[in-house]
Amino acid sequence: MDFYIDLKNIAQEELKQINLDRVNVNCSPPDFEPHRQYYFIAKCRQMVKSESERLGRPLYACTVTFGCQMNARDSEKLAGILELAGYVPSEDETADFVIYNTCTVRDNANQRVYGRLGFLNSMKKKNPHMKIALCGCMMQEASVIEKIKKSYGFVDLIFGTHNIFKFPELLCTMLESGRRVIDIWKDTDQIVEDLPVERKYAFKSGINIMFGCNNFCSYCIVPYVRGRERSRSPKDILREIECLVKDGVVEIMLLGQNVNSYGKNLEEPVNFAGLLREAEKIEGLERIRFMTSHPKDLSDELIEVMKESKKICRHLHLPLQSGSTRILKAMNRRYTKEQYIDLALKIRREIPDIAITTDIIVGFPGETPEDVEETIDVIKQVKYENAFTFIYSKRTGTPAAAMENQVPERAVKEGFDRVLRTVQDTARERVALLQGKVLPVLVEERNEQDSSLMTGRLSNNTLVHFPGDASLIGKIVDVRLEECHGFYYLGRIVNL
Ligand code: 5AD
Ligand code: SF4
Fold first, then answer.
1. Which of 141, 200, 216, 248 is spaced 20 to 30 Å from 322 by Cα?
2. Does this model's pTM top 0.70?
3. What residues contact residue 425 under an 8 Å CB cut-off, 6+ apart?
4. Which residues line ligand 1 (CB under 6 A)?
């Protein structure tokens, strides 16, 4: 081909549009991002193409996500890169390239990864050309890397959270050398914009507004594996939202470990409430969600912005973790039981149609049945629409792991069951308040259990199932909420 593109001369905004088959990969790679990664995608593309010609079939790639919304968004970036590199997306873990984007927030997430790696090993024995990659939070732990090196030698590529933007380069090195590639960084202050993304849903998208966490809750491994807090510039975020809206997105979810401290490390004077105000102005955008809010940083200004907004969804995820001031102190959460309740009730007062959901940990070191009672008391007062209840998991390297008074498993289970029952009872009571109302629902997908039903979400994040067809996906329709089933509704579309 005579018209080779030299990536070094391409403007950043145009990278997504260029024909990668015309990129000159015989010159040296650009030494700046994201151009450098596009160069390596182009190079991978050639290798994938020739392998696919050799086999006489397409090469398939499967991306598997463990953990939170952040990881789900990262996986969309991985999938976007793989697709641009020439792989056909697949949900089948027998694909030619399988990547696990891992989570390490609780030990059961790690155990699931090890279990499934055993299965991948048996697949690889049948198809020796298969390539297996691991990335994400688990890979930031030295003990995990040791274990994989020792017992899972069939893994071909390993990288962590800080250098995920280098995936194309690492993939290229792996494909070219045929050897195992391991690259883990301790930290980074880099944020690379404009890499390709393949969205799971056409009509909604997550958007990272910040990375990392500075809070160091004493049980939590996230600050160690995701590094220090870094915010993206508001200009980049708003440009990304505008592009998504042009591409058909009606709902966005702004993502960060602690969105309420957005902007603190930026030069421009901007905070989370200010960012929301700007996002609100984007025409064509219908719904704005965000995750997660730390109670200690939730400002009156944010409540005000939510209250006035037509687009910010009536949902706040406000992790409680524990209702006992003593345990909260040991957790380094920096609020008391009373401060939390005051905040939650103030939000309920100011925005009466809001749903509040939460995360709760049972079994933190030193927790007594009386502490669990305090947690139950908060649940009864706040009446969450939904709550994720976790059994405390000891994470090596966190301060809580070194605490002496770890609670025996049997005692934890008993408290956990009581917390869960309280959550279910109070949630049912709250969710049932909407019975009979007609409310807008963003239709998301066909119901997995019953294909005559569609599934969507209210602004307040409650799920609604109702008769309909796939043509409704991505649309906002009015639904009468007929039957409350605890955390969700069965309903019927209303033609107004
Ligand atoms: N054990 C149990 N739950 C945890 N979480 C974070 N770390 C741990 C741990 N070590 C929970 C918190 C957090 C959610 C994402 O995961 O409730 O809000
Ligand atoms: Fe973990 Fe606390 Fe940071 Fe959330 S705020 S990621 S629980 S350290």
1. 141
2. yes
3. none
4. 105-106, 219-220, 319, 321, 359, 361, 390, 392-393, 395
